[in-house]
Specification:
The protein is of the alpha/beta class. The mean pLDDT is 91. It is built from six helices and eight strands. Strands 4-3-2-1-5-6-8-7 form an eight-stranded mixed β-sheet, with helices on both faces. The chain has one domain.
């Protein structure tokens, strides 16, 4: 049995207090468990709605309306609220932090319910959580590659992996409060004809000798999770299908008015 954890975040600007934007945000996370029949079923989920703004910049009626709305109000620092564009970027960072916290809390909650042979696959890093990074059957799969762990020939070797190949297991340097973890890169699909990051995952697991011993078997298992394809998602080359399933489930339950619509922003004219 395997469980898969992922989360989503959605937002839109719903108003202004003067030039201060009021951002409505929604974050959610879910764990979907796959049993012997290969079907994914929801084991746990959590969601949260937020209003993000510079509270001190709002008129008193707006403050009262936010307080009465029933959503969590997150305040922005003064230095983030001067320009609307800067405030929106700060609000998006707050929303990302809220999503990561939601995912981490749900993942830690679900560890206690894992069966003796059950694994938890997390979309993202394990090393932000002491509980997740210390569990022998938790895996993190990372699709983005902003952090750099190699240089020179080692970097070239990692970024030009053929499909179905992996690097050796290595221990990333700790950053901030992140815990010790073992990691390796795995190429899901051929990158030739695309960019170097195409089909490239980084995997995190417990910093333990057992992780090194089973890295090949875990990689072979993750290769099988490519099917069926996670299309039409633009990230399908790095998105394992069960993680795609969790995202699809969460989006189906999200507030519909937070979805963007491909409508024109031009003013309506005529009758």
């Amino acid at each position: 049995t395997v469980a898969f954890l992922d989360g989503i975040e959605q937002w839109r600007v719903v108003g202004y207090g003067g030039v201060t934007p009021i951002v409505r945000g929604y974050v959610a996370a879910a764990v979907r468990r796959r049993g012997p029949d290969r079907r994914l079923r929801t084991a746990a989920e959590a969601s949260r709605e937020l209003a993000i703004t510079r509270i001190e910049s709002l008129a008193e009626p707006l403050r009262r309306a936010l307080a009465a709305s029933g959503v969590d109000v997150v305040g922005l620092a003064e230095e983030d609220a001067g320009q609307p564009a800067r405030a929106i970027q700060a609000a998006r960072r707050e929303l990302e932090r809220a999503r990561l916290a939601q995912e981490r809390a749900l993942g830690e909650q679900c560890l206690a319910a894992l069966g003796p042979d059950e694994w938890l696959v997390v979309d993202g890093v394990l090393s932000d959580s002491a509980a997740l990074s210390a569990h022998p059957r938790a895996l993190g799969v990372i699709k983005s590659h902003g952090a750099q762990y190699f240089e020179g020939a080692e970097l070239e070797r990692a970024l030009t992996l053929p499909a179905g190949h992996r690097t050796s297991v290595f221990q990333p340097k700790r950053r901030g409060a992140r815990r010790a973890i073992y990691s390796w890169y795995l190429r899901l699909w051929p990158w030739e004809g695309n960019d170097l990051l195409y089909g490239l995952l980084r995997v995190e697991a417990l910093a333990d000798a057992a992780t090194v011993a089973r890295a090949a078997a875990v990689s072979a298992w993750l290769m099988r999770e490519r099917s069926p394809l996670s299309t039409p998602d633009a990230r399908w080359d790095r998105l394992l299908y069960p993680i795609h399933d969790v995202e699809t489930y969460l989006r189906s339950r999200a507030p519909r008015d937070l979805f963007s619509h491909p409508a024109s922003r031009l003013p309506r004219t005529g009758s």
